[in-house]
Amino acid sequence: xxxxxxxxxxxxxxxxxxxxxxxxxxxxxxxxxxxxxxxxxxxxxxxxxxxxxxxxxxxxxxxxxxxxxxxxxxxxxxxxxxxxxxxxxxxxxxxxxxxxxxxxxxxxxxxxxxxxxxxxxxxxxxxxxxxxxxxxxxxxxxxxxxxxxxxxxxxxx
Length: 157
What we know:
Helix content is 8%, strand content 45%. By secondary structure, it is mainly beta. Strands 1, 2, 4, 5, 6, 8 and 9 form a seven-stranded antiparallel sheet that branches.
């Protein structure tokens, strides 16, 4: 009985078949990585007089996505600089995202909007873009701090 079990076990374990040729897949994986570093220029904007194309910061974009990447921007206050003491007092602005291929100016909303799209990717692309604003003059603005928070995101296409 023991001999019969050893023979049966030997037949089950030997399922490798010989062949004239075989294949082996050699592979590796590189994750898509897209990063953005925002530099805030800490500018104190002129609310009463307004501003035209005032640089407020820059963005260093890097991506290794084979299909390129895109930049999306949104505003917490829908394109409004709001007095932090009394939200009834506010003024509007537009944002310009200026990069090597051109510049895009838009009024922001609370939803992400595309400001840049690269279509050629690979080889860890890198670009620096300027962030500029036009502030609508608010001649009768009461004293205080006026602000909005802008979120800038990068993603592979």
